[in-house]
From TrEMBL:
NCBIfam families: ABC_choline_bnd (TIGR03414). The keyword Signal applies. The lineage of its organism: Bacteria, Pseudomonadati, Pseudomonadota, Alphaproteobacteria, Hyphomicrobiales. InterPro entries: ABC_choline_sub-bd (IPR017783), ABC_Gly_betaine_transp_sub-bd (IPR007210). It comes from Mesorhizobium shonense. This is Glycine betaine/proline transport system substrate-binding protein.
Amino acid sequence: MKAFALYASAALTIFMAAAPAHADPESCRKVKFSDLSWTDLSLTNATASVILTALGYEPEQTILGLPVTFESLKNKDIDVFLGNWLPVQEQEFKSYVNNGDVDVITTNLTGAKFTLAVPTYVAKAGVTSYDDLSKFSDKFNSTIYGIEAGSNQPLLDMISAGRHGLKDWNVVESSEAAMLTQVDKMTKGKEWIVFLAWAPHPMNLNFDLTYLSGGDKEYGPNFGGATVRTLTRKGYRQECPNVTKFLENLHFDIDYENVGMNEIMTNSVEPIDAARKLIKQHPDMLTAWLDGVKTFDGKDGYAAAKAAVLTN
């Protein structure tokens, strides 16, 4: 009897050693993302979803507004938000971070921009800063092309205050699509135009543009420089360490997002298909994203994703 017990114990030990341990508990299999219908966020959510699916998880996206996203994180109705843009979201939502209602996992994008730009042929002619614009008022028809009303307030305040010598200038408020149509039309004729521009966005691929310096008062330093952070609901790091390790590794760059957004916006490719295409084009990024990450059942994460994404 004693010998049998020893045999059974040894067999159980061997079985337990051979059986893969789950990387995360069952409660972590479903990973819930917030989707704000922003093209950049659709791309990054899709990228995460393609990889998590290959790892054996079940990602899902829910369309929410920005304030509802923060409340949903606080209430643990969603798990992950990949679109915490700073500084634009900082003041309104900083209490969620300061009060510990959400966890900051990482900064997933640096080098984003939001400020005025001109076609590069205009920059080469002498317009490289906000202060240069007034020297060429006639060429610009004293006009700045903005986007929808409510999004151009820094420009309206700038003109009202007479900063950069632009006291009598006008801002055309329409929409992103209308502004880009105007840029396309005028650049084809080598006309002079100054407009709101940002990165990541396909405009950086479709137009040869130059961002203007000197707009720190209007949009902040570093050409309206911005970063994007990954947030999770409070305690998610402890509950789901393997998914969190993946999220910590999941860093993007401007080129990746410019190209991916162009696939979605210009070429009408579905976000999930655009993400698959880009991952195949950037196998080095997949390697970095899955460093130290397992599948849901505890196996090698990179091997599983490589088989599912890179070779299919």
